[in-house]
Amino acid sequence: MQLESMFDRRIVAHMSVLSAASSPCGRYFAFGTNFGFIYVFLLEVSDEGFPDFTVSTTSKLPYPGGVYSLITSSNRLYAASVGYVANISWENLLAGKSDFNVIHLPISRRALDLPEVNSLAILESTNMLYAACGDGSVASLSLNASGRSTGCFKAHDNSVYALSKAGEHEVCGPPVFIF
């Protein structure tokens, strides 16, 4: 990673990695930061047998906010931020393109600001992406060609921090079971 200016050095000094995901092929690893950057590293071993962590590409999300969650499907990387989930094909990401498709989350009428997305989970059997939000809701997003939000339900009074799979169902924490 080449740091061209003092501004770049300040960003790196204050950067936090908030999320990570590997590519479907397992050769690349993506990190999401608090500044909205996605760094993609090529995972290779050098001739000396040590890991060679070189930055393959860097992308910036289309709107302000950190990259709070990353998840990979068979050919796309999904990045969650404040009020939206952006996605890009791994092919375009590795080519250095920033042509993100953005799915905006539904906003409750009471909300004054957009909720951050803390966690993502994909349910392949229904081709749905679930987003756990800081306002206590869980949004369901279609991964079909429409790529739109299909619903949202209130899961907790507090933030929902994590989603995980339990068989073919999603589980979010604090515990909420989706049947």
Q: What does it look like?
A:
- This is THO complex subunit 6 homolog.
- InterPro entries: Quinoprotein_ADH-like_sf, THOC6, WD40/YVTN_repeat-like_dom_sf.
- One of its GO terms (cellular component) is transcription export complex.
- It comes from Schistocephalus solidus.
- One of its GO terms (biological process) is mRNA export from nucleus.
- Helix content is 7%, strand content 49%.
- The radius of gyration is 17 Å and the shape is globular.
- It has helices at 6-13, 90-94, and strands at 17-22, 28-33, 37-45, 51-60, 69-72, 76-80, 84-89, 101-104, 117-123, 128-133, 137-142, 149-154, 162-166, 169-173, 176-177.
- A four-stranded antiparallel beta sheet has the order 1-2-3-4, with no helix packed on it.
- The chain is mostly beta strands and 179 residues long.
- The chain has a single domain (1-7, 14-171), classed as Methylamine Dehydrogenase, Chain H (7 Propeller), CATH 2.130.10.10.
- The N and C termini lie far apart (45 Å).
- It contains two helices and 15 strands.
Biggest sheet, open or closed, and with what strands and sense?
A: 4 strands, antiparallel
Shape: globular
Q: How do the strands of the widest beta sheet line up side by side?
A: 1-2-3-4
Instruction: Briefly note the CATH topology name.
Output: Methylamine Dehydrogenase, Chain H
Question: Total number of helical segments?
Answer: 2
The CATH superfamily turns out to be: YVTN repeat-like/Quinoprotein amine dehydrogenase
User: pLDDT average, as an integer?
Assistant: 78
Per CATH, the architecture is: 7 Propeller
Number of domains: 1
Instruction: Name the poorly predicted regions.
Output: none
Radius of gyration: 17 Å
Output the structural class.
mainly beta
CATH class assignment:
Mainly Beta
Helix percentage: under 10%
Terminal residue distance: 45 Å
